[in-house]
């Protein structure tokens, strides 16, 4: 009787789902542990609701970011994956490859009925090629997304003698303003600071995300929608040379700390929080969100909480990138964080049901908003929520960036670019210019040759 009741409850929630759950039936789910407690609390609430609605036990495991993907890769290789996986670096490293190799379950039957509820650009990144079937289908769930933002200290800008209205909108003028005018004025006051925290480390994902933003600004097309490499076409190669020159130049003119050539992902955040840099570019608004978190942290003193509040609302700004060098507005490079159902999962049918339940707006929205702005939603309605469109000075800028338009990473069209990014051919090219003193043209020639070796 309990089994029949559970089946009826599930049918009421999602028409077309399978029937009654058997006693003690379990679905195994692996997720990245949230950066904020609110993310984990929201996920646990979804798990509780799903268990009560279906009678199916959810065996949930939460892992640190790197452990999550490493453990998942090992389990897939061993043929013992969970039913559902959601690691926040799957998109960068594994989703496309798993889809190509036939390691993922086709979830088209789940996503097609809710297609209109999802942002088209986000959904498109989960439409992937399966080499076994020789066709594309939906092989992942677009859970949340991120993009690159500018973050700067407004009070440090003012201490240097400038107003926000002084900041140019054009590409070259923007970087000249920060590197020449602001840094120079700040140092004239005796402060050994740098205008830009500019990731250059080969081991940092921040570097390839930041560099590809510069490449995008110069309209350097790398692959077409069929995954064919087009970077060697003259116009694209010339644009990439300009991007390498631009990216290297910020370091060459002494505008970023010398140590940035060795930075790992946290280091631009640390330099910013230490106020040794005035501006940085970062793939989430986690820098500002740290101060939002601190101002509500009862473990801190009242003075520390007050300062964190002042930082969040008054001192720190989230901003868009300047216009492209051709004068057009920046179209932002978005990374969609993907959940998958594994083809070798022991209970993949229930795995699909769990993700269908998770993707409902009333369940997904609290999970995404639990990150206090670190991740942006993939559903149409959640993007319209006051959480994003209201008075918050940082989240409303993020909303505007997404509204202005996004483009996907190259690995959406050619999964081998996950290896290209992991090897960070982009950072290597820039460092060839900075460290080995080769010309940008030679660095780009080497870059293209290596990309063709990996992804051609």
TrEMBL record:
Identify the stretch annotated as signal peptide in this record: 1-23
Ligase among keywords: no
Family matches, as Gene3D superfamilies:
Periplasmic binding protein-like II (3.40.190.10)
Keyword Membrane in annotation = yes
Q: Which domain of life is it from?
A: Bacteria
Supply the name of the protein.
Answer: ABC transporter substrate-binding protein
PANTHER family cross-referenced by the UniProt entry: ARABINOSE-BINDING PROTEIN-RELATED, POLYGALACTURONAN_RHAMNOGALACTURONAN-BINDING PROTEIN YTCQ
Task: Please report which protein family the annotation says this sequence is part of.
Answer: Belongs to the bacterial solute-binding protein 1 family.
* Subcellular localization: Periplasm
Per UniProt, the keywords (alphabetical) are: Cell membrane, Lipoprotein, Membrane, Palmitate, Periplasm, Signal
- Native organism is Bosea eneae
The UniProt entry, under InterPro entries, shows: Bact_solute-bd_prot1, SBP
């Amino acid at each position: 009787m309990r089994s029949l009741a559970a089946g009826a409850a599930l049918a009421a929630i999602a028409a077309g789902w399978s029937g009654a759950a058997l006693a003690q039936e379990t679905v195994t789910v692996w997720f990245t542990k949230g950066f904020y407690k609110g993310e984990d609390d929201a996920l646990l609430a979804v798990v509780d609701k799903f268990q009560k609605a279906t009678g199916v036990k959810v065996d949930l495991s939460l892992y640190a970011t790197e452990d999550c993907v490493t453990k998942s890769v090992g389990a897939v290789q061993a043929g013992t994956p969970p039913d559902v996986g959601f690691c926040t670096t799957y998109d960068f490293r594994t989703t496309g490859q798993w889809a190509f190799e036939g390691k993922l379950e086709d979830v088209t039957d789940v996503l097609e009925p809710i297609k209109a509820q999802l942002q088209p650009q986000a959904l498109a990144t989960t439409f992937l090629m399966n080499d076994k079937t020789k066709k594309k289908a939906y092989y992942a769930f677009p859970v949340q997304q991120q993009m690159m933002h500018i973050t700067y200290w407004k009070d440090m800008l003012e201490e240097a003698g400038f107003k926000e209205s002084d900041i140019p909108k054009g590409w070259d003028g923007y970087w000249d303003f920060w590197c020449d005018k602001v840094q120079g004025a700040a140092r004239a006051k005796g402060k050994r600071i740098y205008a830009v925290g500019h990731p250059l480390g080969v081991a940092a994902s921040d570097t390839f995300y930041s560099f590809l933003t510069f490449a995008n600004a110069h309209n350097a097309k790398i692959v077409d929608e069929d995954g064919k490499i087009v970077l060697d076409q003259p116009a694209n190669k010339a644009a990439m040379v300009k991007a390498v020159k631009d990216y290297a130049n910020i370091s060459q003119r002494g505008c970023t700390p010398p140590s940035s050539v060795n930075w790992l992902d946290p280091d631009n955040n640390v330099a910013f929080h230490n106020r040794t840099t005035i501006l940085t570019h970062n793939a989430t608004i986690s820098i500002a969100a740290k101060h939002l978190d601190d101002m509500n942290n009862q473990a801190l003193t009242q003075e520390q909480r007050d300062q964190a509040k002042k930082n969040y609302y008054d001192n720190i700004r989230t901003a868009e990138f300047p216009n492209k060098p051709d004068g057009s507005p920046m179209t932002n490079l978005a990374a969609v964080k993907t959940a998958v159902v594994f083809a070798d999962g022991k209970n993949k049918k229930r795995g699909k049901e769990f993700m269908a339940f998770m993707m409902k707006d009333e369940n997904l929205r609290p999970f995404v908003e639990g990150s206090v702005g670190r991740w942006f939603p993939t559903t149409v309605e959640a993007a319209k929520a006051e959480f994003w469109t209201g008075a918050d000075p940082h989240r409303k800028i993020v909303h505007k960036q997404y509204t202005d338009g996004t483009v996907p990473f190259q690995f959406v069209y050619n999964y081998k670019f996950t290896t290209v990014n992991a090897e960070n051919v982009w950072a290597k090219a820039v460092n060839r210019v900075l460290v080995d003193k080769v010309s940008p043209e030679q660095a780009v020639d080497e870059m293209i040759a290596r990309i063709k070796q990996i992804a051609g």
